[in-house]
Structures are given as structure tokens and as C-alpha cells.
Design a protein that fits this description.
The complex is a heterodimer of chains A (298) and B (229).
Chain A (H helix, E strand, L loop, with lengths): L2 E7 L8 H11 L7 E7 L7 E6 L7 H12 L3 E6 L2 E6 L3 H11 L4 E6 L2 E7 L2 H7 L9 E7 L21 E8 L2 H10 L9 H14 L4 H11 L2 E8 L3 E6 L8 E4 L3 E5 L2 H4 L9 E3 L7 E4 L2
Antiparallel strand pairs in A: 1-8, 1-13, 2-7, 2-8, 3-5, 3-6, 4-5, 9-10, 10-11, 11-15, 12-13, 12-14
Chain B lengths: L4 E4 L5 H10 L4 E5 L16 E5 L14 E4 L15 E4 L15 E4 L12 E7 L13 E6 L15 E4 L10 E4 L3 H14 L9 E5 L18
Parallel strand pairs in B: 1-2, 2-3, 3-4, 4-5, 5-6, 6-7, 7-8, 8-9
Antiparallel strand pairs in B: 9-11, 10-11
The chains are: A alpha+beta (298), B alpha/beta (229).
């Protein structure tokens, strides 16, 4: 099944409570995905630095040593802070180079994502506990997407949890399952994308990252995806300054959206949206199939 | 008239509220703070009147018999699924599969209904004030779907004997669904059902669609045919 939620703030009004509101939404989706959860949150955006969120599950990593080695290799200083088994590494190096270096030189860790404003946390377990463990409620920012997982396509592991990210500031949550992800993974690998799991959603994230790198806008990338991704899906996608929702042409998987002057939200079920401020005045609708709904702050 | 009994989902559990509604053999209830709760007022089997003050989640008023359920807000997936009789009204929008497999009664959506509205309907009448999404009335067997707005792609795909009335545009008709003549009895039906639904529209503005009956593979002549084993 899986539950997905996304919240994009159109104004600064609720930025101080983005994490708390996202947590309230995620809490309502516990029933849909009790085995794991994750969230990506966008804020504290800096042009000259990138942050990489890295997971070291069940292993001890000397993050200071890793940052030092990476800094020597890439010629740019790197610092870190840890949040339980996640580390957030801050560097002025290219995010793509830093991600590649970490994948090649720190095989015991998994790079969950990187970007100028994005941090990404996920874990196996009750979504409520996952949100508490990584202090979702205390976080501020401009937009967030989150996921509660009931695994169908791959094992219940932290690495198999959502959101998935492979490109800079891009991540994706998914309700559904893809049927052509193995073939598509090979195609994308031949174009230079790299994957860390057997998961179908990671392929979708890689696909979007590839299209954005090729120069597509987010909307163009998702429109092309309707032709290239086969399966059932409702996707919620976050980018550095944007947010988008798309459903497959059949639209088997649920989605409901709501919009006010201050925010746009999507969720698998309305009860998640019911938690948001001023929801009584929101325009509530079910997104049409095979149509891209996208917002950005400009 | 006695005042409606108030049921507050901010205090009571969904199961408590539904149990109260299902145990009643009549009377009026007002449900407040629904917060998008699922399966609210489902399985009612008596002439009770339920007014829900706010938006509901999936499967509201499912399997309804005899009851009148009025939702002042939006409804999620599967509104009035398998409704048998009575009336279910939503003042806002309804999610996908509204009125699915309904056998009888009346379902009214003042706003838009999403994909697959009236899928496999078996006798229910559904009146939608706005638009319906793609694949509405898919495999519809009996009953009437009345749409004051537009219909999405593949309307009435593989339809049997239900009647579809659309005032606006139809993105496309599904397999074996064709436009049909609007006869006086259809205008009469529309006038009556629009009045029941409390929606204002001129019956003459609607076009009718139904089955071309080209997909019917069963013929009475075949009844005695031996089944190959």
C-alpha cells in the first residue's frame, strides 16, 4: 500500500513549523505503511555549499576521517554532523563528485541524497518513531515530502525506504509499483546514473534526475516519464524550489490535493491534509491522471 | 421535529459513532469533526438521517440502505459504494469510484466526481453537479448517471444497460458506448431526478449515451449449448 504526503509552502508564514506540520500528516499515514518511513525536507538553502545525507546502518563510521579523506580527494573542505545513524556532510565540492566519492570510498554507508537545501532521513520501524528519532517536528524549511512504507517490490530495509534521491536536490516518494524498472535501470546505468538498491522507486528517482540533468524542466521530465515508466504510481517529487505530483494514466493509486494562499499539500488520504492550518478554506481536489501538477517559488 | 443527536468524532471513536448510527432504527444525527475519517456512516440499514459536518475519507455511506446521508464537505474514494437504497449527498467533490456497484438509491455530488464514477453500477442513480473523471460508468449494468458538467475519457466503456446523461462535453466514449436519442421519457426522468437532487438544469440540454450491445456474447439460443470440457 504505502502512504505519501507532501507539503509545499507558498509563503513564509508556516516555514517555522514545516516539520511539525509534515509530522502531523505523516502520523495519519501510519496505517498505510507501518514497516518503514522517511522524509526529505528543504530549507537553509546555500548556493556555495551542498549537504549530503549519508546513512551508516549498524556500522560505526569515523565521519571525521571520512570527511578529511574526501576533502583531500576533492580539494574542498568537508564538515559533518550526525543525527543518530545519519550523517549530514557539508562541503563546497560538487555534490555529484562528493556522492560518487562516498559511494566508491565508503561502501559501508549509503548516500541518501544531496543538495543545496535538501536533507533526507529514513529508517525501518513505526513512522511515528522514525519522525521522533530524526526530529522531524523541530525542523523548518520551505517544503517537505514524506512516506510510510508497506514493502511489496523489495525487502524491508532502510535503504529500500523512501524518499529516494539520486540527483541534486531531487527526491521522490511513490505509492505503487513499477513493472519495467529492471530494464530501465540498465538503460539509465548506461547513461551514467548509479543505483544503490534493487528498488523500483530508486529507478524512478534516477529517471527524473537523468531528465533534469539533460535539461528538462521538472514538468517535462515527468511528462516524459508517463511514457517511459510502466506501472502503477502516484509520485510526489521535490526539487530545490519546486514540488510536483503525478499519477499514472489509470490512476489506481489514491491522491488528494489541497491548496490555500499559503500552502499546497498532497496526501494518499484526506485525513493527512485535515491536520493543516486553515484547511477549511482550502480548495480540495483529486489530481487528474497523467497530468503534472507542479508548483515552485519564484 | 426533534433535534438531531450530535456525535463528535473529536471525542468518540469512529467505531462508536458508526455503532450508534447502525443501531438506530430512525431519527436524525449530526456528526461533527469527521476530519476525513474512513467508512463513516457505512452499513446503515434504517431510515435514519445523518448530517456530516465536514469532509469524510474513503467509503462513506457504503452499502447504505434506507438512510439519508448528507456530507457537508468533500468525500474520498468509494463514496456510497454498493449503495442499495436511500440518498447520499455530498456538497463538495467526491473521490474516485463514487457510487461503485450501487444497486439502488440516489447518490448526489454537487461538485466534481473523480475517475470511475459509477463503475459497475447495478441500478443506482448518480447525479453529479460538476464533472466526472475518466472511465466513469465502466461496465455499468443498470441505473442512471447524470452529469451536469463534462465527462472524462472512455465514458461508459463496456457498458451494459445503464443510461448516461451528460450536459457538457465527453472527452471520449469507451468501447461499445454510443450516443442515443433522447426521448420524452428521458426528459421526464431527468426532470424528476434533478429535482430529487436539488440541482437546477434543463433536461433538454443533456445528451444520452448507452450500450451499442456489440460486445454481448451471450445469446439465449446458446443456453442449451454443450459446454466443451
Amino acid at each position: 500500500m504505502c502512504g505519501i504526503v507532501g507539503l509545499f509552502l507558498k509563503t513564509e508564514r508556516h516555514e517555522h513549523e514545516l516539520g511539525r506540520l509534515t509530522g502531523l500528516m505523516l502520523e495519519q499515514m501510519r496505517d498505510r505503511g507501518p514497516d518503514s518511513a522517511g522524509f526529505a525536507i528543504y530549507g537553509d538553502d546555500r548556493d556555495d555549499h551542498v549537504r549530503l545525507t549519508v546513512l551508516a546502518e549498524g556500522v560505526d563510521v569515523d565521519w571525521g576521517d571520512a570527511c578529511g579523506r574526501m576533502a583531500d580527494a576533492l580539494g574542498a573542505e568537508a564538515t559533518h554532523r550526525t543525527v543518530r545513524d545519519h550523517a549530514v556532510i557539508d562541503t563546497a565540492a560538487s555534490g555529484a563528485d562528493a556522492r560518487r566519492w562516498l559511494i566508491e570510498n565508503l561502501p559501508e554507508a549509503t548516500v541518501l541524497g544531496y543538495g543545496h537545501g535538501m536533507e533526507l532521513y529514513k529508517a525501518v520501524g513505526d513512522p511515528r518513531l522514525v519522525a521522533e528519532r530524526y526530529d522531524l517536528a523541530g525542523r523548518t524549511g520551505t517544503h517537505a515530502i514524506a512516506h510510510t512504507r508497506m514493502a511489496t517490490e523489495s525487502a524491508v530495509t532502510t535503504a529500500g525506504s523512501h524518499p529516494f534521491s539520486t540527483g541534486e536536490d531531487t527526491c521522490l516518494v511513490h505509492n505503487g509499483s513499477l513493472s519495467n524498472h529492471n530494464l530501465l535501470r540498465e538503460v539509465l546505468e548506461s547513461k551514467g546514473e548509479s543505483f544503490q538498491t534493487e528498488n523500483d522507486t530508486e529507478v524512478a528517482a534516477g529517471y527524473v534526475a537523468w531528465r533534469l540533468a539533460e535539461g528538462d524542466t521538472l514538468t517535462e521530465a515527468l511528462e516524459r516519464g508517463i511514457d517511459d515508466l510502466d506501472g502503477f504510481y502516484t509520485f510526489c517529487v521535490g526539487t530545490r524550489d519546486g514540488f510536483a505530483v503525478v499519477r499514472d494514466p489509470i490512476a489506481c493509486k489514491p491522491a488528494v490535493m489541497a491548496e490555500t494562499d499559503d500552502w499546497v499539500a498532497m496526501a494518499s488520504e484526506y485525513r493527512a491534509i485535515a491536520q493543516l492550518p486553515d484547511v477549511g478554506h482550502a480548495t480540495v481536489f483529486e489530481p487528474d491522471p497523467a497530468r503534472i501538477f507542479a508548483w515552485s517559488r519564484s | 421535529m426533534t433535534a438531531a443527536t450530535a456525535l463528535d468524532l473529536a471525542g468518540a471513536t469512529l467505531r462508536e459513532v458508526n455503532s450508534t448510527l447502525q443501531a438506530a432504527d430512525g431519527g436524525s444525527f449530526r456528526v461533527v469533526n469527521p476530519q476525513g475519517a474512513h467508512a463513516l456512516a457505512c452499513g446503515l440499514d434504517a431510515p435514519v438521517s445523518v448530517h456530516v459536518d465536514g469532509p469524510v475519507g474513503y467509503y462513506c455511506a457504503g452499502m447504505n440502505q434506507h438512510a439519508t446521508v448528507h456530507v457537508d464537505g468533500n468525500a474520498g474514494t468509494g463514496l456510497a459504494e454498493n449503495v442499495m437504497s436511500g440518498t447520499v449527498t455530498v456538497t463538495g467533490n467526491a473521490g474516485q469510484s463514487a457510487g461503485a456497484t450501487g444497486h439502488g438509491g440516489l447518490v448526489v455530488v454537487h461538485g466534481n466526481a473523480s475517475a470511475r464514477c459509477g463503475i459497475s453500477m447495478k441500478g443506482v442513480d448518480i447525479v453529479v453537479g460538476g464533472d466526472v473523471g475518466h472511465m466513469s460508468a465502466f461496465m455499468a449494468q443498470a441505473g442512471n448517471l447524470v452529469v451536469l458538467g463534462d465527462a472524462g475519457a472512455d465514458l461508459g466503456d463496456s457498458i451494459y444497460e445503464a443510461r448516461l446523461f451528460v450536459r457538457g462535453s465527453v472527452a471520449s466514449l469507451g468501447a461499445d458506448c454510443v450516443e442515443k436519442e433522447v426521448r420524452p421519457e428521458h426528459l421526464e426522468f431527468l426532470a424528476a431526478r434533478l429535482a430529487d437532487a436539488g440541482l437546477d438544469a434543463d433536461p433538454a440540454d443533456f445528451r444520452r449515451y448507452g450500450s451499442a450491445r456489440r460486445l454481448y456474447n451471450f445469446h439465449p439460443d446458446d443456453v442449451d449449448a454443450e459446454v466443451a470440457r
